[in-house]
Each structure stands twice: as C-alpha cells, then as structure tokens.
Amino acid sequence: RVKMSAEEILVCAVKLGKNFCLYFDELECDALCKEKSLYRVLRNVNSQLLVVRPDLNVAAFEDVTDQEMKSGQGMHFTIHCYKTTTPAAGLPVAFSVQIEDKSYYMCCEKERGEMIVRFREGEVPKEIPGESNIIFFKKTFTSCCSRAFKFEYSLEEGMFLAFEQEGYLRKLILKKQSRKDEVDETMKISL
C-alpha cells in the first residue's frame, strides 16, 4: 500500500453527454475557439471613427456625422472574441465589418518588406487551429484608462494597430512600439 498526497493525484472533471458519451472539462485545446462577439465602432484619440472602404483598399479614422453613422457603411465592427489558454498575452480578437451584403475581415500581410493592414472579403472562422494573421491581442491602453485599448498583432510582438497621417487621411496601420512602457496615443482605440 502506497500513501499519496493530494498534490500527486490529477483529477479531471467529466460529464456524461448525449448517447452516454464521456466529456472532459477544463482541458486545454490547441485551437482558438470563438467565444462571443461584440458590436462596436472603433474610435481613435481624436474621437474619429474607423471607416473601411474596400473599393479604395483603405481603412482610416474619419470625422463622421450622426447621419453617416446611422447608415453605418463600413464603420460598425464585429469584434470576435476567442477563448485562450494564455490569458497573459491579452484577449485574442478578430475584426470584421459588414458592407452592403458582403463581410470583410481584418488581416495583416507583408508587402514590400512592411506589414500592411488589409480587409479581405470573407468570414472569420469559428476555430483557429494555430497561428493566424487575423488575431490581435486586446490589452488595456493604460492602467488608469479602462475604456481604451491597444491591439497587438499576434504574429509580431510589439506591433500594434495605430493610425498614421497620410495626406488628409488618418490611415490604419501596424506600428512598432519602441518601449514597453511607452504611451503612444496613436495606438489608443476606444470601443
């Protein structure tokens, strides 16, 4: 007879499902699984709304009138939240937007040696088996600003969604954060 301490015994919660199938709870899975969706507009530090214009292949923060907001073309986002086994990285999310009768998802692609934010026609998957160019980690912008966030690209640590002035546009871009403690207002996004 061997005496065991409670620390040595692994206990897995189980439940009996339909057709008497046995299911294990609390086990980590390798895939990101969609948990819930939020419907929001995205604002920058200047209270401008992010507007997607796939016909022009651009997403930019713009001043929007109440009338334009009601029509909502390209500015009402679905934020798809995924379950994660690594919560310290932040909440994994993907973005999509409905324009007329088409759905577009946000992704990042390398073009001429630099990362570009794009919106591609299609749906966000329910499960993502591994790494993906559509996932961003939602993080609180600062500890004293709980309603504003920054979104780190999952495939490149330290790269965040931000805006950059390009002519008259405040274009959505990926931007490298120079220091972890840096507070960069161009990365601040309110929901």
Automatic annotation (TrEMBL):
GO biological process, one term: cytokine-mediated signaling pathway
Main location: cytoplasm
Record keyword Lipid metabolism present: no
Gene Ontology MF annotations: cytokine activity
CC annotations in GO: cytoplasm; extracellular space
Domain of life: Eukaryota
Compartments reported by the entry: Cytoplasm; Secreted
Entries under SUPFAM superfamilies matching the protein: Cytokine
Signal peptide: none
UniProt keywords, alphabetically: Cytokine, Cytoplasm, Secreted
Pfam families (alphabetical): IL1
Family named by the database record: Belongs to the IL-1 family.
Subunit structure: Forms a ternary complex with ligand-binding receptor subunit IL18R1 and signaling receptor subunit IL18RAP at the plasma membrane. Mature IL18 first binds to IL18R1 forming a low affinity binary complex, which then interacts with IL18RAP to form a high affinity ternary complex that signals inside the cell. Interacts with cargo receptor TMED10; the interaction mediates the translocation from the cytoplasm into the ERGIC (endoplasmic reticulum-Golgi intermediate compartment) and thereby secretion.
The protein, known as: Interleukin-18
Source organism of this protein record: Scytalopus superciliaris
Gene: Il18
